[in-house]
Amino acid sequence: MTDACRVVETGGVYQSGAKKGQVRTAKRWACAHCDALFAATGVEVDHLVPAGSLRSDEDLVPFVNRLFCAKDGLQVLCKSCHKTKTQLEKNK
Ligand SMILES: [Zn+2]
After folding, report:
1. What is the value of pTM for the model shown?
2. Taking 70 as the threshold, does the pLDDT of residue 26 lie above it?
């Protein structure tokens, strides 16, 4: 597993659907940009090389190749960092 896809196990009190006081291990994902930890619902998978857009038929093959890249072409970002990166890429 690379730094771009880091899972951290943290202890926590399991609140919903568990008996009182029951503790379980909660997985947290580290954002590759800000390094903060988030639950799985707080992170998104980002393409290091943007997949780009489909403006013509000629865009289809390179778009698909970038979209379905190898695992090392992906990173985990929190939703905020992913939104910022995506907006910066659109403004290029
Ligand atoms: Zn982040």
Report:
1. 0.70
2. yes
C-alpha distance from residue 82 to each of 9, 23, 31, 78 (Å): 22, 31, 9, 6
Number of domains in the chain: 1
pLDDT of res. 5: 65
CA of 60 to the centre of ligand 1 (A): 30
Residue 33's domain spans which residues?
A: 3-90
Beta-carbon contacts of residue 74 (< 8 Å; ≥ 6 apart): 4, 5, 45, 46, 47, 48
Tabulate helix, strand, coil % of the chain (nearest 5): 35, 30, 35
**Ligand 1 centre and the CA of 34: distance in Å?**
4
